[in-house]
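Batch 3, record 17
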Amino acid sequence: MKKVEEIRKDFSVLNQADAKQSVVYFDSACMSLKPDCVIDAIDEYYRKYPACAGRSAHKNSSIVTKKVKEARKNVADFINAKSENEILFTRNTTEGINLLANSFDFKKGDVVLLSDKEHNSNLIPWLYLRDKIGIEVRICESKEDNTFDLDKFSELVKGVKLVSIVHTSNLDGVTNPVKEIIKIAHKAGALVCLDASQSAAHEEIDVRDLDVDFLSFSGHKVFGPTGTGIFYGKLNLLEKLNAFIVGGDTVEFSTYDSYKFLPVPDRFEAGLQDYAGIIGLIEALKYAKKEIGFKYIKQHELELNTYISEELAKYPEIKIIGPKDSALRGSIVNFYIENTDMHKFANMLDGMANIAIRAGQHCVHSWFNAKKIRNSARISFSIFNTKEEAELLVENIKKIMQII
Amino acid sequence: MPCLIALIVFGIMGIFSASHRALAKEALSCVFRRVTFRPCNSNFKDKIKDKILSKLINRSVLLTKIVNKHYELLSWIFFILMAGSMVWVLRGGYNFYVYGSCNGLNSSGFCAFDPSGENNKITAPDASSATCGVVQNTESNLTLEHTDLSIFPSIKTDSENTVVFIGCYACDYSRKAYPEIKKLVKNKNANYIFAHFPVKGKTEFLSEIGYVVRKDYGDQKFWELNDYLFTADVSYVTDQNNINSILTNLNIDAQKVQKDLIKLKAKEAVQKEISELTKTGIFGTPTVFINSKAYVGPKPFRVYRSAINKFIFF
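Prediction for the assembled complex:
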């Protein structure tokens, strides 16, 4: 197992010659930093074999075709999918969920059930569909401590066609009991789509064990390149989906008045793909799962979360979103102070010690509006964050607390 | 208010730096929204405030606390100071253009645009000279009201503008001002009166020679001599031994002039001239009266021109 000091060496951005440029990065919930292996893979594609996959017959094209196939296999392995054909390359989680919302055969009156902590990427597509074709969007409220309310869910899931729910919340880091959720949903005859955007980088996902029907996540949160995403679907379900974006490379043939779609997954991957990104993503997933390992990731994050949570808890005015137990909040400490614009913390930490955190409503506006909370400051960590960095963060937060 | 200050400050800094240009743009959008009675939507004010606080907090938490608490008030104070200093700078710029000094007409205080004070330098009367007794004065007391200007050489035109140049042939600053005055009189076709006020060294003899030349040869010859005395090498023209050759070169009969010095009572005439000039309150040369307004020191041409122009620039 690599130690954090060794891990940090994998990230050029953390080892800049000019110390002033080096960032203390606590914004991994927004986007993770990229290890050099990912950057090198992208660089290699553009420098050594820049070509299209699956179209031309020349050597470079063959290399790219092979790499994309390998990437699909790697992603399938990463989430333990039955077949690589169940893996679709997208731009990000949002695109994956939009694909499902627009391709699934929804009819007026069909019910989609969401949690009350959904990122806009798993809320707006459904609200839009509600306005467009008249589906019903149901919200399952969380418990007082912001953890998932299975009892309430069991009630609400009746008559639902699809449950689309976040796996790990980017709001508070809470991981929902998705295995139970899926079991209950299936029992009620509903399909389940998981927004695994936040969870993919922090815990092992086994789609077969979970028995999840659809799952979407972004590459940029799993050490991968921006503009890459994965949409998983059980093969039989994918085959039933309507086409979403159609055009180049989605059909076997076309005439002036007819066409025949390619089988899954190609029919969903219209146009030239982000090959550099896909090739970079292979390295990112290998890095997370094989080189670092989720056991270490979870343990490391718990240590940091516990330390930061305990320090912040010393201030009664600071309210941490989510359960008290830091073990339940994964890699996120999201806090706010009543009647305070939490951008102050983000702006000042950046100015004081080049510490990057995020302030705002974190694309979960619905939750903040419902709770009438202005905004929050979110600290989210990853494998490369050290205890020293956490101490520096806390020390600077304490300074800010003295002036507000 | 902080947005307005930021707009001005970053606007200026943006001329040199692209990153500040972006901030200036953000500030402009903020100011625009505020003047159209809409809230600023970019958190710009807070961003700038937090930037300042984050720099301060590592130096003094107490100071940061005060700035954080009274930020709006401090912004107003800085704005008023900035507005005041801007008015001051503009006033200084105006004064410099119109009077040659940031501090106003004939003021010799420090001026950033003229740090060495060249535009206000004068040659004060030499205590050891014959002009001893001229009392140090201030420009506010300078006036032509009690002075009989008819005894001095003059060029009369139909102009409503009159330039009175009181200078000294031996003085550097008078010599510096001379070409500007000459240009002004020519450009503006102004009435012109010249008076030699010998404040440096023993140069009264030049006044006497000038007086006699004017009487013997008329104004035209006097102006030729005057032009020569202001433009030729100062040590040469102020050496009494050279006067005959100077006159000869100008086709003036030096013998006759020397004889007429006594005959025409030049000494008395010059004494009268000095006595008249003293009534102006003069305390140094060059002193130029343009339409009765006094300009002390060698001003740039634009200053003299502005004094005659109706609307400063034209």
